[in-house]
Amino acid sequence: MYLFLAIFLAMMAYFVYFQAVKSETFINSPYNSLQDLFSRRVIRGDILSADGKVLAETNTDSDGNESRDYPYGRVFAHAVGYAENGKAGIENQENFSLLRSHEFFLKQMGNDIAGNKSQGDSVVTTLDTQIQQTAYDALGSFDGAVIVMEPETGKILAMVSKPDYDPNTIKQDWDTVSSEDSTALFNRATQGKYAPGSVFKIFTTLEYYREHPQKYSDYTYFCDSSITVNGQTIHCAGNRRHGNENLQTSFANSCNASYANLSLSLDRKRFQETCDSMLFNQNLPIRFESSKSSFNLSEKDSSAMVMETGIGQGKTLVSPLHMLLVTSAVANKGMVMKPYLVDHIENAAGNTISSSEPSEYGSVISAKEAKLLKKYMRSVVTEGTGGKLAGQSYEAYGKTGTAQVSDTSDETNAWFTGFAGKKGYKDIAVTVIVEKSGAGSTYAVPVAKKIFDVYFNR
Amino acid sequence: MLHLLVQGSKYLMILFFLIYTFECFHVFKFQGNEAEQKRIYHIQRVLLFLIHLDAFIVLYLITKNIQLIGFYLMQLIILLAIISAYHLLYKHASELVLNNMCMLLAISFIILTRISFERAFKQFIFVCAGSFIALLIPMVLQNMSMFRKLTWLYAIIGVGALTVVAVAGQTSYGAKLSLSFAGISIQPSEFVKILFVMFIASMLHKRHDIRQLAVTSFISALFVLALVLSRDLGGALLYFFTYLVMIYVATQRFAYFAAGLLAMAGAATAGYHLFSHVQTRVLAWSDPLAVIDDAGYQVCQSLFAIGTGGWFGLGLGQGLPSKIPVVTKDFIFAAISEEMGGVFALCLLMVCISCFFMIMNVAIKLRDNFYRLTAVGLGTLYAMQVFLTVGGVIKFIPSTGVTLPLVSYGGSSLLSTMIVFGIIQGLYIMQFDDRMKKKEQMLKGGKYRGKRSSEKKPDRKKPERKTGGRQTRKP
Fold first, then answer.
1. CATH class for domain A197-342+358-456?
2. What is the pLDDT of residues A229-265, one digit of tens each?
3. Which residues in chain A have Cβ-Cβ distances shorter than 8 Å to B242?
């Protein structure tokens, strides 16, 4: 008898718990077709930028026809998304919020009696129109992605992916953008999977440090522009001879020969563990469509594969968002903050209904490791491949990468991932990938620089 | 305007149901004060009909289907008929059980009419038939005392029927459940469970030595095995658990119960590895969104419905309950929560608990061991069934494909539950009469002696039972 009572109480408690806490996940699920019921009585709400600009709104013409308009057009395409022919981006994630109205209840009743629709709530994003526009312009006509975040809070300030589409005309353009040979709908910033190239050396360096916590600074290597082991030769970029190097200068020079050499000494199992603990092979902590990065190294792999892996080629694939989170951890003493794009929801009158608070995902590296990597990433700017960022009003840190698009192609994707700080400003982290362009230092660093310049000079 | 009306009446229904539910438990404060109790039961009935009326006004307004008015009146008549017939025939029937039964039926009518008029109508016909049976049962119980002697008849019919299903039944959702002939399909296991309870009760009401227990367990195992063979694992679980509780109550040995639970855990693990549809359901339970395209579809739709409905529901006719597969049967609770609100659904659960309390209350007060065990068994069945179905719908446990008694659509389930409620009323009356007689005799100053011939020698000292006062709990 008491047993049953306990079971029932537990079940009722679970029901209450579900309604109070867990139901959000299910209500907001894009699969939940019940959401669209609300559009019968509610005008889809606006999506606003952090600086108060309208990114998406619903306008009703004199005949009562509704249209969804995006004043910034292509610039916010992937971040804001679209709401016709399916949904994507914030339009998808926040569908339910946009379709709920928290207008004053008497007004809602009045609307109801008069047969009018109520105005849905507005979603205020963390996106910054100025940064977004800068990033969008900086990427120019290249395909690729740029993503900007505050490491301390997890706020995403900009998210650009190209090729893109115009959300205003998505319905008319649907056949083109959704065709087999178009990737316009694909959000490269969160879903793209790229060979990391030299930005991966952040992980290789960390692993070497973890295996030699006392003696890592004793590492030396003489670079004569290439290394050959078991018949496999790895060249440095542009066949440069880096000469005598230690770990830090190898990192700053992004010396392939040195890293290939160093990775042969690493414990593969521990390397795998380190990468797994740094968000590889798992879902990224974001409420947005994103893909898993992959890293795999086992005893079965050849020495050639180990060397390739150590310099970020091999089988490893990463998304720009993943690199951004790891970079942010370095900037934020090892702590990864959960990235988010929605700052708060407000009703038509501007009163806040609910808001997001920064929340910790967890420490992926120790504060000491973060400090070391920060130092190394600074030397990339002061004496290495990120020289274009030196001598600014802000202090920049980063790592460049130039990754082969595929084994059979000489084309390269340019990478940069880094962060910068200045007194009176919050740090920002930026990850850039410019597809099929050239070297990271030439094509990706300038994009990041434009963003830093705008952000730290306003 | 219409929308406002729908929304307004939604809150009204919740309010009425909250009061009703409160009174279900509040009424126990007035034990002995019959006038006050009568008043409360009367209020409950008024609330019941208000909810029913309110819901049908809304349903009519949103569908504009004239048939609904006629249908409403028919439902009103049958509910009134059940109540008055009980009042007329059985002065001492439990009013609370009666009210709860009618309340659950009314809710069933409302939500089924909302989902499918045709099904609601079929259900209505079954209710008519069921209430007739439920009315007869107390009379039969009062006048016949041979039920305790039909032990082997129960076993043979029960196991036989289940075996026939296992061999010739129709498969639905991975399990063989029903037999169909002449266009009517019935689910024998719904009825057999009553036989099962009566079988165990008749086996154990006099003796429960090792031999008797062994025989009982063996035959019970046959029941359960037949269910497992037809892959009705939810049913098997239901039967087995009921068996355990009855053995425990009969012997008062907790060790048996614990050993049984262990065995159940073992069997569940084995079932998980043996049956693919069990694995599917467990998978769907652990992370439904991950497998939404196939296994998790049903649970996800159910949770979407419950979640989107929120505390106060979307209002009748405002949701999409038909999106949930099997919504009228196993997942009726989700539809109720979606359109009538989470609060309403919780109240519904409380009413079910109230029913369970009443059954156990009857069990405690009954002096006749056979009937006492029967009541315990039926109570366990009822509670287990509510738990399995609601738990499955809200993802508290993996879904087992059990119906919500009296509320879910389905003739077999409805009829068998109405039989159970009929039996409980019969036992309640029996218990009441016993108490009256005892009181009378005490008033006369005579020493009270057991009257029923069947209960010659209670083989163990029974705990003293209070005749009036608050109900006290056992196990």
1. alpha beta
2. 988 888 888 888 999 999 999 999 999 999 999 999 9
3. none
Burial A166-191 (b: 16+ CB within 10 A, else e): bbbebeebbeebeeeeebbbbbbbbb
Calculate the alpha carbon distances from B259 to A2, B253, B263 in Å: 19, 10, 6
**Structure confidence at residue A177 (pLDDT):** 86
Query: A418-427, B94-103, B226-235: which range is least confident on average?
Result: B226-235
Residues A132, A138, A142, A147: is their CA dihedral positive or negative? negative
Residue A27, min C-alpha distance to chain B (Å): 5
- Tens of pLDDT, residue by residue over B273-309, are 887 777 888 888 888 877 777 778 888 888 888 888 8
The Cα B451–Cα B431 span in angstroms is: 12
**Cβ(B455)–Cβ(B369) under 8 Å?**
yes
- The nearest alpha carbon in chain B to A15 belongs to B394
- DSSP code of residue A422: -
Q: Is B77 on the interface with A (CB under 8 A)?
A: no
How close A2 comes to chain B (CA, Å)?
6
Q: Is the peptide bond before B458 cis (omega within 30 degrees of 0)?
A: no
Q: Where are the domains of chain B?
A: 1-143+276-444+471-475, 145-274
Judged by a CB distance cut-off of 8 A, whether residue B70 touches chain A is: no
Q: Give, as one character, the DSSP assignment of residue A141.
A: T
Scan for tokens 């105005």, then name that residue. A119
Integer Cα distance of B421 and B433 in angstroms: 18
DSSP string, B105-158: HHHHHHHHHHH-HHHHHHHHHHHHHHHHHHHHHHHHHHH--GGGG-HHHHHHHH
* pLDDT, mean of residues B113-124: 92
Q: Which two tokens stand for residue B297?
A: 């579809």
How many angstroms away from the CA of A140 is the closest CA of chain B? 38
- On whether the CB atoms of residues B105 and B79 are closer than 8 A, the answer is yes
- pTM recorded for the entire structure: 0.73
